[in-house]
Structures are given as structure tokens and as C-alpha cells.
Amino acid sequence: MDYRQVGRSGLRVPALSFGAGTFGGKGPLFSAWGQSDAAEARRLIDICLDAGITLFDTADVYSNGASEEVLGAAIKGRRDAVLISTKTGLPMGDGPQDWGTSRARLIHAVEASLRRLGTDHIDLLQLHAFDAHTPVEEVMATLDMLIAAGKLRYAGVSNYPGWQVMKAQAAADRHGWPRLVAHQVYYSLIGRAYEWDLMPLAADQGIGALVWSPLGWGRLTGKVGRGRPIPPGSRLHETEQFAPPVAEDHLYRVIDALEAVAAETGRSVPQIAINWLLGRPTVSSVIIGARNEAQLRDNLRAIGWTLTSEQNAMLDAASAVMPPYPHTPYRQQDDFALLNPSMV
User: Fold this and answer.
1) Which CATH number fits domain 3-343: 3.30.420.10, 3.40.250.10, 3.20.20.100, 3.60.15.10?
2) Which of 16, 130, 307, 326 is 20 to 30 A away from residue 50, measured at CA?
3) Active-site residue numbers?
4) What is the model's pLDDT at position 327?
């Protein structure tokens, strides 16, 4: 396994990490993702640890806390061998204190996650969505307090707009608080918007990307393609309404390129899609998920080799889209293009 620093922090993580959204399986979205209980989760974690995957990502909102509970049970007795990443900020109920990142909400959410995970600290806490009602100074001061108390090691965000990330970094710098070190983002061959604003920001601010849904919400599994609609039993039948949209022509153009590279290399389509991401600027770790052992073992074979420059160029060309205003005029600037490969 390749290990990488998260941005310019001291946190060192495996290039592949495991997403525990398939653990617990409660509710219309998460039950479609997977329903692994503690015994099955323990088996998947065994395979991950054998392969060198030590970072496990979850969130309090995943199956209303059940994902954290199953993960905590599955790592019992080997907490020192793993890194735990979890997220908070999305609604966990209908009450006024059940959502957001106010001081009261963050303290309560962290304490609840620690109980469910059966641990005394979280290695990386990421704010799951920005709270427009809470001043950024309150958020960052609370994170500083939780880090000083030993309950958190590092803090980051997930799905944040760039201007909010910069407000947080500026507040941290003004007051001497710990800076954000990670941004968990959607990034895939059919979803490259991360490159337009957030990737250059990450490079400038020393923030590492943890990539979620590297297979484009299950569309890049090799099961979907021209003349091959979504197969029966695919989670897309239940979850496509929640997925980032993609035009059909663009999807098939990317899949055609993936299948061509897969034929050249003898690798699977998911392995090609994940490997491409591992070569992108600012990417610290790609989060893979699996509902069963076969899926996990296939995804694990995405590392230990590299695509050729020609294969990367083919995938880049097939997946490139014209960026929106105001990014379009900058696509010819050499330094900017290094961090925005889709814009050249």
C-alpha cells in the first residue's frame, strides 16, 4: 500500500481507504448501499488491514448512527491499528439542535460519535456541510477546543464551497487555531468539477482530498454501458435520484474509454477508474466501498501499477468538459492547467 500525507499536515493515510456507508443499512438510501452487520464488517476490515488499508470513513448520518456502531464493534480490540474518519453536520433529527455545526451541536455530535464508535478519540472529523447560520469563528474555536481536549486529532470538511473553506482557514490563521487539513469531495471520471475551484484551493492551502464515490455513484462499475442499461439488483434503481447528474452521452463516452483501457491492461473498469484518480493532484486517499468481499478484492487491485501517459490522455480527453464561467479564460495558463487537466 502507498501511504500519503493529507495535504501539508502530519496525518499519513493509505492511498485507498474504506467507506463504511455500507455498514448498518437503515433507511431508503443506506439500505440500498449495503447492510453489513458487525460480523461481515469485521471480515471486510480484516481484508482491508491485510492489504494495508488503515483508514475507515463513516458519518453520524449514515444509517442514523448504525454505521458508526457497526464500525466500532468491528474494530473492537484493534483500535490502535486503524484510523477513524467520521463526519457530522447533516440533520440527525427534526429538532433545532439536531443539525448544523454550532458549538453545542458539535460538542454533542462528537460525544455521540465517540460512544457509538467505542473510542476516546476521532482521528479526522469532517464537517459534512457548511452551516450558514453559525459564525465561522464559533465553528473553528470549537474544533480547536475539541482538538485540545484530545477528542479529535485533525479536522476537515466535506462538500464545502471554496469560499467557505477559505473563510475557515483565514479564521484559523487569525486566531492561531488548527487549520483544516482535509476536504472529502465527490470526484470521478464523470464528475470533475472538483478541478475547477477546489483543487487549486487545496494545492494552495495544503488541503488533501479524500475522494468519495470514485465510481460515479456506481455508474463506472463495468455493468453499465452502451446497450447495457442498469442491471436488475443494482443500487442505482433506488439511489439514482440522490446521485450527481451526468449526461448520458458523456457517461457512455467515458465508459467507452474505460473499456478500451481495460482491454489493453487486463484490468477491470473500476480498477482503471480508481487508478486514474490516484494520479490526480491533491488526492490523498480514494475511499472505496464494498457490499461484499468480491467487490472489495477487485477494488484493491486498483493499486500497485500505473496507467501509461497515453492511457491517461485517452481518459482525460473522454471525460473533459468545458468549465463554466469564470474558469474558461484561464484554461490556457500553464500553471493553472497543471491543476486543472480537464481545462486544456
Assistant:
1) 3.20.20.100
2) 307
3) 62
4) 80
